[in-house]
Amino acid sequence: MANTTMEEFEALLNESLEMDTPDEGSVVRGKVIAIEAGQAIIDVGYKMEGRVDLKEFAEPGETPNVSVGDEVEVYLRSAENARGEAVISREMARREEAWDRLEKAYADDARVEGAIFGRVKGGFTVDLGGAVAFLPGSQVDVRPVRDAGPLMGLKQPFQILKMDRRRGNIVVSRRAILEESRAEQRAEVIANLTEGQTVDGVVKNITEYGAFVDLGGVDGLLHVTDMAWRRVNHPSEILAIGETVKVQVIKINKDTHRISLGMKQLQEDPWDLVAVKFPLSSVHQGRVTNITDYGAFVELEPGVEGLVHVSEMSWTKKNVHPGKIVSTSQEVDVMVLEIDAAKRRVSLGLKQTMRNPWEVFSETHPEGTEVEGEVKNITEFGLFIGLPGEIDGMVHLSDLSWDQRGEEAIQDYRKGDVVKAVVTEVDTDKERISLSIKALGGDKFADAVGGVKRGSIITVEVTAIEEGGVEVEYEGMKSFIRRSDLARDRADQRPERFSVGDKIDVRVTNIDSKTRRLGLSIKAREIAEEKEAVEQYGSSDSGASLGDILGAALKRDE
């Protein structure tokens, strides 16, 4: 009997030794036999027990869910530790289980459920039912999320973007799920929209160029130029976030699912009545809305703006920035110059509402009027003088002096000098005013030679004796008689025959108003007198000598 018992015991021992014990590093099934000191004691069979912290049985943010008698899977890290217990882990078992499940989902491109439980550099950590994944910040939502607090611990679907079991890396996206559902929602909403349809929407976001309006799951762009017929500098002028607005669907792009919206299309177009309200050449008051390098925009009424080109801003300020002439929000009078209804453009004039200063000057300062002004500029061809009405007149070099060359006379003037001049011509079309300084005292030469004609005999006074002739003066005008013109006979053509102060009769041979000189000759006077005497008292072949003829003529005169 005893022998039999020993044999049975030996058989049972061999049998127990031959039984397969689980491999370390594998997942085994065990039973919770007790819970004490925050740990669950688990019998994994094979006469092995181990301990697992209760927190390993809890989902992120939840309380542990485990009771005595529960059967659970754990990861066997080591069959025996120093206390003779198995080293087991529920968390590692869940991870292995999760990886198997996640790899299948990744292969099938299926969604997985998880919860965000922590924040790390560049994003968040997500528990996918035992496996920890990385959620990049850019993949949290379709738009940047400032506060991710409400999303923490919330069970929600994710899309696996990338996974590497060997390295233990998983990258997931919440944004991909949202975009997919959003795309479905957009497609449904867009399918029910038609171009030209009027819908209600809520302003979600405002930018520099417009506003995004939620049409019930899909956003449309309301561009700033489609908000009102008038100029809108910034959308916030007429819209606020959260406001409900009535808009018209202008365009739907079926490929990109982009929707363009408009508000002004629901209002009457003010351009329909522009030609009637603002006829050509009519003057209206408007408000300056914008200033550019090339002109200023003036609002005639809400929705109707016209451009005052820089060339139509001032009669006198030619090369000045428009901002120096008008300012934003200023009320100004403008004239309608041109209307292009097709291009929705109105050309306006500012200077046309004021009189042309050249016309005013022409009326108030006829030719011959004396004016006084400051030398504004000196150029190589003359002086520019400031005149009433902020305009300039020009004194040409040739109008500076009777006696000096223009290049010499201009040296006597400086910028800022106040000078007097006479108006000689006003050309309103070319906006030119010609002035003369030398004409201030009248034309002395013209006055002096007014009654003198070519061939006239005049009396002059000798003012200087020179080797080449004599200088003489007539009514204040200087002239020069050359040696060859001093006498008919060569022997008498000597300047020294005359003295300063002598009065002599001369014949006028030429009147040059350009050089302001008289051509004078004693010789020509003598020849003319001889010819006249011969005609009156005989001919050269009558036998009478020249002396007899001249003697008779002298006696007659006496």
From TrEMBL:
GO terms for molecular function: mRNA binding; structural constituent of ribosome. Pfam families: S1 (PF00575). Keywords: Repeat, Ribonucleoprotein, Ribosomal protein, RNA-binding. The keyword Ribonucleoprotein applies. GO terms for biological process: translation. One of its GO terms (cellular component) is cytosolic small ribosomal subunit. SUPFAM superfamilies: Nucleic acid-binding proteins. NCBIfam families: PRK06299.1-2, PRK06299.1-5, rpsA. Binds mRNA; thus facilitating recognition of the initiation point. It is needed to translate mRNA with a short Shine-Dalgarno (SD) purine-rich sequence. Belongs to the bacterial ribosomal protein bS1 family. This is 30S ribosomal protein S1. It comes from Salipiger marinus.
